[in-house]
Amino acid sequence: MVRSAPRHRGDRWPQARTSVTTTDLDRARQLLRALGYTAHHPRLSVPARRFVLDLTSFELAGTGAGLGPVGVDRIHYGGLLRVGYEPDEDCVVIGQLVSGAYELDDGRSTRRLAAGDAFLLAPGHDHRIRSSDKSERLVRIALTTLGRVAADVTGIAPGGLRFHGAEPVSPVLAGHWGATLRRVAAQVLLGPDGLTEHVLVRAQAIHELSLAALAAFPNTAQDLLADPHRPPGRTGPAALRRAMALLDAHAHEPVSMEDIAEGAGVGVRALQAAFRRHRDQTPTAYLRQVRLSHAHRDLLAADPADGTTVAAVAARWGFGHPGRFAVAYRAVYGVPPGHTLHR
User: How do residues 301-314 score in pLDDT, each as one tens digit?
Assistant: First the structure.
């Protein structure tokens, strides 16, 4: 059985949901390959009568600024299986085992996972998986998307991002990845209808997932941050003012720090250092501040009688969770956003 409910407006498809249940192994292969698991080769180790695939998938559209799309899947495989899988060249798969038995060999090490354990399947590695009645959460995200976010945060060249291993750096960071995924799923993927039509909401969700993945699994961006000899860069106030002007002008769009740094005539790391030195904040924090001020002006200008809501204004400016928006808004303006709207 297949049920699909895409969300759309006009010719845009910001999110599609699909639910599938099948006991046909060939059908299961076709469905998974259609989602992007192209080099995915499951084989049964027991009679076919025990096999079942239960799949729920969310496809979150990209932002048009080098972020996304992203797929979030919940997969249950009933039966004992052996799977060979190598992600496509630009695809990273990040998973978390929910239940069942799971053994992963990525060509560098073999690992038996327990419920709650996270893992990463990176391009360039042929993974061998043995599982029994497993349920897992998987996120499909482009290596180029992760590289773009890594460049914004660390200054690494976008094409220089590589992952070193399938195991998280620490249990704490693995837990952070899982918590981020659950939060994004609850607030964005399962949130109010139409929320993902806001490009800034999608950009924020993809950015949060990317940051959590970059923190949780060993990679070359982490190596760069850990290098004690890396130069921080120096940027004068003039370049900082240019960057702030660009962030002000493009706050309504999904922007990357790489683009802002290029427009200001400096490198990403130098830009980050300048914001820390002269403003005691990151460029991303400044951008959130600008967007919050735009939301404030929209609330002041809005007429609640025409159906405008706080949630709609917040989403327009990239705040996908009304509760967190309300906390941030009150911290700056001293009143709840609803007070401004209904003044």
Answer: 888 788 889 998 99
